[in-house]
Amino acid sequence: MATAKDAPGAGRQPMFRRVLLKISGEALMGEQSFGLDSKTVNRIADEIKSVTDMGVEVSAVIGGGNIFRGVSAAATGIDRGTADYMGMLATVINALAIQAALEARGTYTRVQSAIPMSTVCEPYIRRRAIRHMEKGRVVLFAAGTGSPFFTTDTAAALRAAETGCNALLKATQVDGVYSADPHKVRDAVRYDRLSYRDVLQRDLRVMDASAISLARENKIPILVFSIQNPGAFADVMSGTGTYTMITEEG
């Protein structure tokens, strides 16, 4: 059994003190085509715990695309506002799943929802969220921004800015930002560093434009890495992993 001394993140020097991790809902599906894969949820919980073991204050925003996608539903005839609210509820389910997995590992966690539902989680209160992180608790921000027509990418950038995070980490299926989808284009080029302007002008689709602009205005670097590689979150936090960093200078 791993002790605090030999835990994956223990003893490693992090690049940032407080971070927000953005994970897509699809990342929780594993090999399934829908829903939650317990092995994947547990592995992601291990990834988060390894970073809290480094002394980093961690928060996270998790998408809901593994359960319900508002944009897709709107295309089938559901009113866009209603579809987006349904998607927000899906993010609460995912946050509760990650919370359960983290607390099974002894990591204290709070779920805060932008849509009040006091029976299962706290309402989002900025100062309370900051206090939780200062006490070493992982805060999972659910229900996006609480308003339709905004993505969870935008919610991630917004919460990172509101809670004074030093970096926003975007966990994806590939190990950084590429000039094209590397799964479809064999000679796609991976970038080590980019500027916010590069991302917007080249339409690289790392995150939506609103999220990139929010990060830029608040001088929050974005680090893009693969959540599929075990230990990648802690590696990136210690500066030894493979990732793309997006800053003002690039």
Level-2 CATH architecture: 3-Layer(aba) Sandwich
Which stretches are poorly predicted, pLDDT < 50 over at least 5 residues? Answer: 1-6
How many separate structural domains? Answer: 1
- Class inferred from helices and paired strands: alpha/beta
What is the helical fraction, as a range of percent?
Answer: 25-40%
Outline the structure in words.
This protein has 250 residues and is α/β, with parallel strands linked by helices. Helices cover 35% and strands 18% of the residues. The strands form 2 sheets. The chain has a 9-stranded mixed beta sheet, sandwiched between helices. It starts with 17 loop residues before the first strand and ends with a strand.
Task: Note the main attributes of this structure.
250 residues, alpha/beta, Carbamate kinase, 9-stranded mixed beta sheet, two-stranded antiparallel sheet, disordered N terminus
Question: What is the topology?
Answer:
Layout: E1 18-23, H1 38-52, E2 57-62, H2 70-75, H3 80-104, E3 109-113, E4 122-123, H4 126-134, E5 138-142, H5 152-162, E6 167-172, E7 177-178, E8 190-191, E9 193-195, H6 196-201, H7 209-217, E10 222-226, H8 232-237, E11 244-247
Parallel strand pairs: 1-2, 1-6, 2-5, 3-4, 3-5, 6-10, 9-11
Antiparallel strand pairs: 7-8, 10-11
Helix pairs in contact: 1-3, 5-7
Summed up:
This protein is globular. Strand 1, helix 1 and strand 2 (57-62) form a beta-alpha-beta unit.
